[in-house]
């Protein structure tokens, strides 16, 4: 049985070496962003190698891996739709960019960046514990809602609502900081 698993592992590795560009192109067409496509392909091959015993029975490994890539892209679409419907946004990219852009301040100015960072830290510290915890876990640690939900027993919808409220509170606090800076 070890020989069959070893042969399957080698078939998966060969498929990766020979077809990586094709897998990546297909994932990129479906996922849109190159970074997401690379993650999808990497995840598909990790999954294939984790299921090497199944691969031993597969006739066409390349087609099997394409189906794993397709399933990972579908998972990505579902995750993105869930995040959008929950109102999840990226604080660092959207909120701060909007606030900085509206303020007329130069975000490249090191002093302003440092002060903004301090203001954001203070605003996060002022959040209620549950909102602060979700912001830190999601934005700074990159922990998915599903993992947080499993660890805490809190439904994903509740976590998403807490994050949305935290983002609103941070936005208000940072807008207040910019108003103070203009004085």
Task: Summarize the model shown.
This protein is an all-alpha fold. The chain has helices spanning 2-31, 34-50, 52-55, 61-85, 91-103, 110-126, 129-140, 145-152, 156-182.
Give your account of this protein's structure:
It is built from 9 helices and no strands. The chain is mostly helical. The protein folds into 2 domains: 2-85, Rna Polymerase Sigma Factor, Chain: A (Orthogonal Bundle); 91-182, Arc Repressor Mutant, subunit A (Orthogonal Bundle), CATH 1.10.10.10. The longest helix has 30 residues, at 2-31. The protein is 84% helix and 0% strand. Helix 7 packs across helix 9 (156-182). It is elongated and about 65 Å long.
The CATH homologous superfamily of the largest domain is termed: Winged helix-like DNA-binding domain superfamily/Winged helix DNA-binding domain
Q: Taking all residues together, what is the mean pLDDT?
A: 77
- Please give the CATH architecture of the largest domain: Orthogonal Bundle
Order of helices and strands: HHHHHHHHH
Instruction: Report the top-level CATH class of the largest domain.
Output: Mainly Alpha
């Amino acid at each position: 049985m070890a020989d069959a698993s070893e042969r399957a592992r080698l078939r998966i590795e060969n498929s990766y070496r020979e077809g990586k560009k094709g897998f990546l192109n297909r994932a990129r067409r479906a996922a849109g962003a190159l970074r997401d496509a690379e993650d999808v392909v990497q995840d598909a091959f990790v999954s294939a190698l984790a299921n090497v015993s199944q691969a031993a029975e597969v006739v066409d490994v390349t087609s099997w891996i394409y189906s794993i890539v397709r399933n990972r892209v579908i998972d990505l679409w579902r995750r993105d739709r869930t995040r959008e419907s929950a109102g999840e946004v990226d604080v660092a990219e959207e909120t701060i960019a909007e606030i900085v852009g509206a303020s007329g301040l130069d975000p490249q100015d090191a002093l302003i960046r440092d002060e903004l960072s301090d203001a954001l830290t203070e605003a996060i510290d002022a959040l209620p514990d549950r909102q602060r915890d979700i912001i830190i876990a999601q934005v700074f640690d990159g922990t998915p809602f599903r993992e947080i939900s499993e660890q805490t027993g809190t439904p994903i919808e509740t976590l998403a609502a807490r994050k949305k409220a935290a983002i609103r509170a941070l936005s208000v606090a940072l807008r207040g900081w910019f108003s103070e800076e203009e004085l």
